[in-house]
Amino acid sequence: MIDTRFGRWLLPLFARRRGGRRTPEAFRPRGTSSRVSRLSARYDADVDEALQRLWPKARIYHDREFTHDRADFLLVVRGRGVMVETKVKSDPGVFRGSTLPPLLDRLQRDGRRLVVVLNQGDPTPARELIASKLGDKGCVVVWSGPEHDNELRGAVEGLLQRMVRHA
Fold first, then answer.
1. What is the pLDDT along the chain (167 residues), one digit of tens a residue?
2. In this structure, which CATH number among 3.30.70.100, 3.40.50.970, 3.40.1350.10, 1.10.8.60 belongs to the domain 32-162?
């Protein structure tokens, strides 16, 4: 049976999307419709908004392609950069960081700082992994919304304060 309601066909072509913000192309699910991919895309957009809200004058660069050895964002605040990697868990269990080693190896070579932003769960094993690879140049923060902005700000500012520019 053919759908004869014109609204369904014409609205996507001519109407503006309702419901507020538009999702940038970089945050749309990458070729899969799994629940975790949809959660991940929404979470990336929410973290991006939080970074813009917390550091309105900062530059935020997004990685346009999916790789295991590059972070999702580069946040540049006052001329200093911090890599931001988002991780989404669909359950509130323990986050071990099993997908982090390629990224940690690259950042260890490059000497970059990293904040892993996790939506939920216990990040203790991941904190130990990051500490063993990056030392005090990395941390994990559980952030699930604006009520956790202080933790995110504290983690990033802490890494920025530890940076020393060499002449």
1. 455 565 555 555 555 554 444 445 444 444 445 666 788 889 999 999 999 999 999 999 988 777 788 899 999 998 999 999 999 988 888 999 899 999 999 998 888 999 999 999 999 999 999 999 999 999 999 999 999 999 999 999 999 987 654 43
2. 3.40.1350.10
